[in-house]
């Protein structure tokens, strides 16, 4: 270590050490000279004799330098300086190569930053690797919430979990000071927040005795709500505010970066404005009333399979002890929280990461072709360096240093492109990428970019560097540097074929994803979303303690709005299609009189509506009729079902007039008569019909949180103002929120496909552009090398058409080879995209044919332009070329 440190420090004292060495060498020579003069030699003879006796001065200097320093670092620094000079002499070449690499590396940097943030980085919670989600399973229905007793039993009987917590997302209203404001409300167990955060920003977390029926009413606010409504006042802690008309005490404020990151479909928004403890005694809740999303923290050293085995044992105990659980065929599933959060976006991100890797390979092939062409220009330099004693490894190292320097410069430029790419990704991000908003170019991303730059430099610099091993010194020196390196054209053609093949794969993948998006745009969701405005309202305050008050409010509001000029129809529904901000309502159903074995086997989405909803969305009735005001007034036990449920429940008979056992708004069994069958309305996804649908009259299924669907030809801004005024007439303290056109919900359902198809299209366009420039560059250089040959052919009478055909034939061979290789690669790789496709097969012949035709046409054009230029050569000028 002492020797290494001395060698290292000597690198920074070269001039002083060289001066000391020169002084020492002069001293030795002076001593030898004086000794020879004492022997009687002349001055001239003594100096010559001293130099002969001492040996080669330069060899001594080099030997000393090698012993005092670090030769590898010294020569590396020399190689870097030389590489900078070489690139500076050809700024056009350097700019093209750096730009090409910046595109390839920048795309990888942008996608990796997303992959790192979403897939690789742990969630921002304490001991996040031990956090899990616990889902209930009811027969064939998985990923369901749990009931209060379920959560209590898990806490009592599990030995492999440290703790369990739960949340139920709702909506509420803050009143009192200022305008009434809607808030996203999270009902949580007292330990839920402490599982996801170390401490609040202000105040404290909930105490165990603050949860339950007789507990004091306390709340914790989000940082955003605390700042914009209460002016970030630290004196708010301990004060009372009014939530849903009731006084509650603020005991804490969460940190500004706190989010509740739950899996997609769990109906738990990441930003919760107000968090309150459950006001009920969970152990006394009905066992079949499932609404709580449960998370658990594993004990240290416990693996998921062990925890799953324990939960299966607990589920078996519950089924054997309680009728409700046995009838529902209760099962339990545990999955890692992080893995469940990213389960839907992982295939798309991995596919995009594979795509940008292909883009980088195409960019490397392009730059390798540039370096191969430039190696011919530098043949004289390489020949002379080898002839004067440079070893083959030393020349290869110098060339690799140049390519790595070029790649690192491209990597620096890639950071700028990657930043732009990140902004594009943020603008397109679909649901399930909430953590993407916090993505930044941090140390892992910079490290990835640096490592990728070095790897790319080695990758595209290896072929030109190894090409120096084929130098024939005698022929090269005789040719004065004009002789082409042996076999140099073949590597360039191989690289062109590789570019075309990789570009073919990207084109096919992008084509399939674009067809998927086109299929989604053509999907009929079962309703017409144009000219429909949606508005959310909550009758959860103290004014609406009775069912009659809630029913009266919505009926009066619907009547008042419907009588306004310009409004065609007004609907009221509990759950809007493609909106998962509130928990879904689904339960078992069965035809009346079904045997016990056929009950509690199939579930359907339950919806609470008022007459006018189907008219507002222009849904199509298959049979029967819609609800009418008389049905509401008399609170008739009737229902409307969708065609999927009707076909499943009564496959060979009409559903009209049939009886159906359903769950009503009080979560108890009710028997209703089917009076209408409507076409299925896509609710969760544009591609899957998840469950059948049952529509109940609002008086039989009173819900606190409802939505209006208003079809009109009124300007949206005027319509919003009108709705606010009509709501204020009935209840001035009720906040109006969630004001969105219905088409926005449909667009939200298309967003994941738009995300992947847009990025795949951009990558495919880049790939085609790079492949085109690569083909053009190789064809142009080929023509340049054969200028004299073309001149001789023209002088001897060759027709220009023959010259054109010859050049096209030779250069198109690489393109055709690449297309055929790409065909095989695409057939092997596109099945990996199956989970991302809809309405198109991975081996779609139209897409594959279109990609092949496009690449062949682009390649033919890129070859034709240099070939046409060759046919216009003046034979005399061509013969004088060299």
Structure overview:
The structure is a single chain. This protein has 28 helices and 24 strands. The chain is α+β, with helices and mostly antiparallel strands. The strands form two sheets. Strands 13, 14, 15, 16, 17, 18, 19, 20, 21, 22, 23 and 24 form a twelve-stranded mixed β-sheet that branches. A six-stranded mixed β-barrel has the order 4-5-10-7-9-8. The longest helix is centred in the C-terminal third of the chain and has 44 residues, at 742-785. Helix 6 (91-120) crosses helix 15, helix 6 (91-120) crosses helix 16 (443-466) and helix 24 (742-785) packs parallel to helix 27 (845-871). The protein has four domains: 2-69, no CATH class; 140-328, no CATH class; 346-521 and 750-879, no CATH class; 540-733, no CATH class.
Sheet bearing the most strands, described? 12 strands, mixed
**Termini separation (Å)?**
57 Å
Average pLDDT rating: 86
Per DSSP, the total helix count is: 28
Q: How many strand segments?
A: 24
Low-confidence stretches: 481-487
Tally of individual domains: 4
What structural class is derived from the secondary structure elements? alpha+beta
Report the oligomer. Answer: single chain
Give short descriptive properties of this protein.
24 strands; 882 residues; elongated; 4 domains; alpha+beta; six-stranded mixed β-barrel; twelve-stranded mixed β-sheet
What's the SSE blueprint?
Blueprint: H1 2-10, H2 14-38, H3 43-54, H4 57-68, H5 71-89, H6 91-120, E1 131-138, E2 141-144, E3 146-147, H7 148-157, E4 161-175, E5 181-188, H8 192-196, E6 202-203, E7 218-221, H9 223-230, E8 240-243, E9 246-253, E10 274-277, E11 290-298, H10 304-321, H11 323-327, E12 330-336, H12 337-341, H13 346-377, H14 379-387, H15 392-428, H16 443-466, H17 473-478, H18 489-522, E13 532-538, H19 547-562, E14 567-573, E15 586-588, E16 590-591, E17 603-610, H20 613-617, E18 621-624, H21 629-634, E19 638-642, H22 643-649, E20 659-663, E21 669-678, E22 692-697, E23 705-712, H23 716-730, E24 737-741, H24 742-785, H25 787-795, H26 800-829, H27 845-871, H28 875-879
Helix pairs in contact: 2-3, 5-15, 6-13, 6-15, 6-16, 13-16, 13-18, 13-24, 15-16, 18-24, 18-26, 18-27, 19-23, 24-27, 26-27
């Amino acid at each position: 270590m002492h020797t290494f440190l001395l060698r290292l420090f000597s690198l920074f004292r070269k001039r002083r050490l060289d001066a000391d060495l020169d002084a020492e060498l002069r001293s030795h020579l002076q001593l030898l000279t004086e000794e020879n003069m004492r022997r009687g030699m002349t001055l001239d003879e003594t100096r010559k004799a001293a130099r002969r006796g001492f040996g080669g001065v330069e060899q001594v200097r080099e030997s000393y330098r090698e012993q005092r320093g670090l030769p590898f670092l010294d020569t590396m620094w020399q190689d870097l300086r030389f590489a900078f000079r070489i690139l500076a002499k050809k700024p056009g070449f350097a700019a093209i190569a750096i730009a090409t690499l910046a595109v390839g590396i920048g795309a990888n940097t942008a996608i990796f930053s997303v992959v790192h943030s979403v897939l690789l980085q742990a969630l921002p919670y304490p001991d996040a690797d031990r956090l899990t989600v616990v889902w209930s399973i009811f027969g064939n229905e998985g990923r369901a919430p749990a009931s209060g007793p379920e959560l209590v039993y898990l806490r009592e009987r599990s030995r492999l979990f440290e703790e369990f917590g739960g949340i139920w997302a709702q909506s509420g209203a803050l009143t009192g000071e200022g305008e009434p404001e809607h808030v996203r409300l999270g009902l949580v167990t007292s330990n839920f927040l402490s599982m996801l955060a170390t401490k609040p920003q202000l105040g404290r977390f909930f105490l165990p005795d603050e949860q339950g029926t007789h507990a004091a009413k306390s709340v914790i606010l989000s940082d955003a709500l605390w700042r914009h409504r209460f002016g970030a006042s630290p004196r708010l802690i301990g004060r009372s505010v009014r939530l849903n008309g009731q006084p509650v005490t603020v005991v804490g404020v969460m940190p500004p970066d706190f989010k509740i990151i739950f899996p997609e479909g769990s109906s738990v928004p990441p930003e919760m404005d107000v968090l309150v403890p459950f006001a009920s005694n969970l152990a006394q809740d009905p066992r079949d009333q499932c609404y709580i999303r449960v998370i658990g923290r594993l004990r240290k050293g416990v693996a998921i399979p062990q925890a799953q085995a324990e939960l299966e044992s607990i589920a078996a105990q519950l089924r054997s002890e309680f009728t409700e659980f046995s009838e529902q065929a209760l099962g339990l599933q545990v999955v890692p929280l992080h893995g469940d959060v990213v389960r839907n976006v992982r295939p798309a991100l991995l596919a995009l990461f594979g795509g940008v890797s292909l883009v980088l390979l195409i960019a490397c092939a392009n730059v390798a072709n540039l370096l191969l062409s430039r190696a011919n220009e530098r043949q004289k330099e390489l020949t002379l360096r080898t002839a004067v004693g440079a070893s083959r490894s030393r020349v290869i190292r110098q060339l690799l240093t140049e390519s790595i320097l070029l790649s690192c410069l491209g990597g620096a430029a890639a950071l700028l492109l990657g930043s732009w790419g990140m902004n594009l990704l943020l603008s397109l991000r679909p649901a399930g990428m909430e953590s993407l908003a916090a993505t930044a170019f941090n140390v892992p991303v910079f490290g990835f970019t640096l490592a990728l730059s070095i790897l790319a430099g080695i990758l595209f610099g290896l072929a030109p560097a190894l090409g120096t091993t084929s130098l024939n010194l005698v022929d090269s020196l005789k040719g004065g540097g004009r002789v082409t390196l042996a076999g140099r054209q073949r590597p360039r053609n191989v690289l062109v074929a590789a570019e075309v093949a990789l570009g073919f794969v990207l084109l096919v993948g992008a084509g399939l994803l674009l067809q998927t998006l086109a299929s989604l745009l053509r999907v009929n969701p079962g309703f017409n979303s144009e000219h429909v405005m949606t508005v959310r309202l909550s009758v959860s305050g103290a004014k609406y303690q009775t069912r009659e008050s809630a029913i009266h409010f919505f009926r009066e509001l619907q009547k008042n709005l419907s009588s306004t000029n310009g409004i065609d129809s007004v609907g009221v529904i509990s759950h809007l299609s493609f909106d998962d901000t509130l928990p879904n309502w689904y339960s078992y159903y069965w035809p009346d009189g079904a045997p016990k074995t056929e009950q509690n086997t199939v579930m359907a989405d339950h919806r609470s509506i008022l007459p006018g909803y189907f008219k507002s969305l222009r849904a199509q009735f298959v049979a029967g009729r819609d609800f009418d005001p008389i049905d509401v007034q008399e609170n008739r036990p009737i229902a409307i079902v969708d065609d999927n449920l009707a076909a499943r429940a009564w496959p060979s008979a009409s559903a009209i007039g049939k009886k159906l056992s359903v769950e009503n708004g009080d979560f108890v069994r009710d028997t209703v008569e089917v009076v209408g069958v409507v076409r299925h309305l896509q609710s969760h996804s544009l591609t899957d019909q998840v469950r059948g649908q049952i529509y109940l009259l609002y008086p039989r299924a009173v819900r606190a949180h409802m939505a209006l669907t208003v079809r009109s030809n009124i300007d949206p801004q005027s319509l919003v103002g009108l709705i606010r005024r009509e709501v204020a007439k009935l209840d001035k303290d009720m906040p109006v929120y969630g004001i969105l056109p219905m088409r926005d919900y449909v667009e939200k359902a298309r967003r994941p496909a738009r995300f992947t198809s847009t990025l795949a299209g951009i990558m495919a366009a880049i790939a085609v552009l790079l492949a085109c420039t690569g083909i053009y560059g190789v064809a142009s250089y080929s023509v340049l090398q054969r200028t004299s040959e073309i001149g001789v052919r023209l002088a001897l009478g060759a027709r220009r058409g023959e010259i054109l055909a010859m050049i096209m034939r030779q250069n198109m061979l690489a393109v055709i080879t690449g297309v055929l290789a790409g065909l095989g690669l695409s057939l092997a790789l596109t099945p990996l995209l199956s989970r991302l496709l809809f309405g198109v097969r991975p081996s779609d012949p139209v897409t594959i044919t279109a990609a092949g035709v496009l690449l062949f046409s682009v390649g033919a054009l890129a070859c034709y332009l240099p070939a046409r230029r060759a046919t216009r050569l003046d034979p005399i000028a061509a013969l004088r070329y060299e």
